[in-house]
Amino acid sequence: xxxxxxxxxxxxxxxxxxxxxxxxxxxxxLIANMYETMYGAYGVGLAAPQIGLAxxxxxxxxxPFADDxxxxxxxxxxxxxxxxxxxxxxxxxxxxxxxxxxxxCLSIPDIREDVFRQPKIKIQYQDEDFNTYTEEYDGLIARxxxxxxxxxxxxxxxxxxxxxxxxxxxxxxxxISKGKIRADYKxxxxxxxxxx
Length: 196
Known about the structure:
By secondary structure, the protein is of the alpha+beta class. 29% of the residues lie in helices and 29% in strands.
């Protein structure tokens, strides 16, 4: 089932999310719905706060980047085969010289900006069966994970922009929070939530 994606301005996007355990209600159904929602919006990552749940979970599927010829064949192969659910993740390390990449977010439609992030990460997380892993990633996969990890920490990519950029985007961001935007997928706007 495709769920509405929470728009910029909703307080759930600014909350630090909480851990969950294997007893979390209908977890497998939730994960399946999140994948369906992400694919329906042509996303490469989706965090639980983006569907209104302040829990420490996100998923990533970088396969849409696999056709980008600016990546090497090896990188394209890695991107094509990377699909993972991260539950209760903990970022252990971020290292290397920061690099810029043009990022967007399903909760902030029609806004894309260059964001600087470090290229290598080490992360500990649990999978759908609550097995624990510690893994290292670099390049674009690391970046997508960092973007989604920020969501469960209550951080949006726009928070990482300069004050000047934020001022330039202020009107657009206010319009998104008021629902004055057209997206190709189902969204839930803060203004709509308050009317209920």
